[in-house]
Specification:
The complex is a heterodimer of chains A (95) and B (578).
Chain A (H helix, E strand, L loop, with lengths): L2 H55 L2 H11 L25
Chain B lengths: L1 H5 L3 H7 L2 H28 L1 H12 E6 L6 E2 L5 E14 L7 H11 L3 H8 L5 E9 H9 L5 E10 L7 H4 L11 H5 L1 H4 L4 E7 L5 E9 L7 E2 L4 H17 L4 E8 L5 E7 L12 H4 L2 H4 L9 H11 L7 E3 L4 E4 L2 E4 L6 E3 H6 L3 H9 L3 H10 L26 H7 L9 H8 L7 E2 L14 E2 L3 H14 L17 E11 L2 E14 L6 E8 L8 H4 L1 H14 L25
Parallel strand pairs in B: 2-8
Antiparallel strand pairs in B: 1-6, 2-3, 3-4, 3-5, 6-7, 9-10, 9-19, 11-14, 12-13, 15-16, 17-18, 18-19
Helix pairs in contact in B: 5-6, 11-22, 14-17, 14-20, 16-18
Classes of the chains: A mainly alpha (95), B alpha+beta (578).
């Protein structure tokens, strides 16, 4: 066995270990990726659930009942409404 | 001792071995190899696929890639229907092993009566569903009981946050997440998601470590953005329920359209239902009256009769029409007015809703002209919203019209329409004679319209419709404080078994603000039971209340020149007309 053969043999061994190492690393990363994907699905579901909750809580009839009965609010009568007409600013004028 | 002397001679021992013994050994060894060879051939050649598959099953799995149904939203992005993952709990009674305590725990988790659960689990064999569409975390707690024979099936649950207000419009899905009614059915193809599948390799701990192949890519359901405004829908639902309660009516519907784009801003019916709890629903609640039911429109048709005559050039708004003291005889039929007058101008025919006036104007028109305009604005044809069960109404071919039929059709008898058709037809007046297609979906660009009236006619009719809400008109109660509104009342006898009976459909269809119209509001009250049953008494106040609130909601500046008197003031008296 020449020196060159020994060197090549060692090189092959190193590369073989490298392949094993990288494959292991790939799998580990892939598992991480899968876990993140699962998390994404979970968060998506949570987002949908929150949207349902938001939709239910913001339903007009609920807010209206709340405003009328608990906060004692009321719609303004026409007499209580004032219409303000804002004239456009003239050149150089400030308000 | 003699024997021992003979043994050392090895060569003689060989000779003494009998040949069959070595053959036997050889044969056994050979056949052993042969068996091994055949077995190897069997395993590697013939049976290879099966074994390979079995082997892969140990580490590879086909996993579903879930795809959820699209979300239905209103024009401002408010969610109206959302799917969330949910699971069904089912039992296989053949391998069920459950004791009393477990049964009670199970019933408790499923929120069911233990007796009912026991009854359902008792059968001989087969599969029984215990609960459909359970949230994931609750289902997990059921599995934590570790009862053999109880299984989960994954799926989706559809939630409707706006409950009954949106029920008729949005519709609902069945247990398999398939659209059954409303938008859920109309846009099923767009909304539905198609689950995908992939084959993966898992390690000992159950982690996916490699994707082997993508069997089927998933297709996520697409969202649908409706033209409806959830806030306007709520106001419409509230006003409709109030009106039905106060007039003791059987049913009713309201349609609100954007007069410029043809978008449906609100569409409500009563009675309604909660799509989240659909047990024991009848057709009465499920029916989307505004779209699937037709009624005789009555006087709300008159503006179209007048518009035809204006287009043909037979009359001008100030042309005087003799109304013969409110009675007109055609053959042996009599047409009556509620209000007795010798003559009206064309504008006053609308203002006072004169049947005789409308009939006389119609009798001067060629039937084909009337039929053409009625058809142009959409009567007798489906409004093509794509909704299930859309009604087209009835408009008989003009070739067979007898004079009495043409005369009564002038004030909306002898034909039928749906409320949504009626609302759409009215968009031609605020829209300078242009008719646009209706849309349930929010439009990004103005859809192309079709001119069906001249600008002049549209404006003239609009001016007449504004007189309807004057103190002398049939619907002063339709007035809206601060805004100019225009519209027309309708009160039609219902037809039962081919005969007119003393039951009514009261309606009011109008638009606002007149100076720069934004919305068309159509109100229909079915069988008001009190002493007040005219459109001007029952439907006009609903129009007034709803339109006022929508004006405020949409930030539309008031356009009335002076503060109007509020509807119901002492000035509002006198006979009511249809």
């Amino acid at each position: 066995m020449t020196r060159r053969d020994v060197l090549l043999f060692l090189l092959v061994m190193v590369l073989a270990l490298g392949v094993i190492q990288s494959q292991q690393e790939t799998r580990r990363r892939y598992i991480d990726l899968q876990q993140e994907k699962d998390r994404q699905v979970q968060l998506q579901t949570e987002d949908d659930q929150l949207q349902i909750e938001e939709g239910t809580l913001s339903a007009s009839h609920r807010i209206e009942a709340h405003a009328l009965h608990e906060l004692g609010m009321q719609l303004p009568t026409p007499a209580q409404k004032h219409l303000l007409v804002v004239a456009p600013l003239a050149r150089g004028e400030t308000r | 001792m003699k024997m021992r002397k003979g043994i050392p001679k090895v060569g003689k021992l060989e000779i003494r071995l009998e040949r069959w013994r070595s053959f036997l050994i050889q044969g056994l060894l050979l056949s052993g190899f042969l068996v091994l060879g055949v077995r190897a051939f069997w395993l590697q050649g013939i049976h290879a696929n099966f074994l390979q598959q079995k082997g892969e099953e140990r580490y590879s799995r086909v996993l579903p890639i879930p795809a959820s149904r699209g979300i239905i939203r209103d024009r401002n992005g408010q969610a109206l229907a959302i799917s969330i993952p949910a699971v069904s709990v089912w039992a296989n009674r053949e391998d069920l092993e459950i004791d009393g305590a477990q049964r009670i725990a199970l019933a408790h988790l499923l929120n069911e009566n233990p007796v009912e659960i026991a009854r359902r689990l008792k059968g001989e064999d087969g599969v029984v569903y215990l609960k459909r569409q359970l949230p994931l975390d609750e289902a997990q707690r059921v599995m934590d009981l570790k009862i053999p024979g109880i299984y989960l099936q994954h799926g989706f649950h559809r939630a409707y946050p706006k409950s009954s207000e949106m029920a008729h419009l949005v519709g609902f899905t069945d247990a398999d997440d398939k659209g059954q009614e409303g938008v859920e059915l109309t846009y099923q193809a767009q909304l539905q998601g198609l689950a995908g599948a992939r084959r993966v390799i898992r390690d000992r701990a159950g982690h996916v470590i490699e994707d082997v192949e993508n069997i089927r890519s998933p297709r996520q359901g697409q969202d649908v953005l409706l033209s409806v405004d959830a806030r306007i829908q709520h106001l419409a639902a509230r006003e409709l329920h109030r009106a039905i309660e106060s007039s003791h009516a059987k049913a009713g519907a309201i349609v609100v359209l954007d007069s410029r784009t043809g978008e449906v801003l609100a569409l409500v019916n009563s009675p309604d239902y909660d799509p989240n709890q659909r047990g024991g629903l009848s057709g009465t609640e499920l029916r989307n009256r505004a779209i699937t039911d037709t009624y005789e429109p009555g006087s709300t048709i008159k503006p179209f009769t007048i518009a035809t005559a204006l287009e043909v050039g037979k009359i001008r708004p100030d042309t005087v029409i003799s109304t013969h003291g409110g009675v007109l005889a055609i053959g042996n039929h009599l047409i009556h007015d509620d209000h007795v007058a010798e003559s009206y101008t064309v504008s006053e025919v609308i203002e006072h809703s004169s049947n005789v006036g409308a009939a006389r104007i119609a009798l001067d028109l060629p039937p084909v002209k009337m039929w053409d305009l009625f058809t142009d604005v959409g009567f007798g044809q489906k409004p093509r919203l794509g909704f299930p069960g859309e009604a087209g109404g009835r408009l008989r071919p003009y070739q067979n019209w007898k004079p009495i039929e043409q005369a009564t059709m002038a004030f909306g008898n002898g034909m039928s329409v749906s409320l949504v058709q009626m609302a759409r037809a009215y968009t031609v007046f605020p829209n300078d004679g242009i008719l646009r297609p209706l849309s349930l979906i929010k439009v990004s660009a103005l859809p192309p319209g079709r001119p069906v009236l001249s600008v002049r006619t549209a404006r003239e009719v609009t001016a007449m419709l504004e007189t309807v809400v004057s103190a002398e008109g049939t619907a002063p109660e339709a007035r809206v404080a601060g805004y100019r509104v225009a519209g027309k009342t309708g009160t039609a006898h219902k037809v039962v078994g081919g005969r007119y009976v003393n039951k009514y459909v009261a309606s009011f269809i109008g638009f606002a603000p007149v100076s720069a119209p934004r919305i068309v509001v159509a109100v229909m009250i079915d069988e008001p039971a009190g002493s007040r049953y005219y459109g001007g008494q029952v439907a006009a106040p609903v129009f007034s209340a709803l339109t006022g609130e929508i004006m405020q909601l949409l930030d539309i500046p008031p356009d009335a020149p002076e503060p109007p008197t509020i509807a119901g003031s002492p000035a509002v008296t006198g006979g009511h007309h249809t």
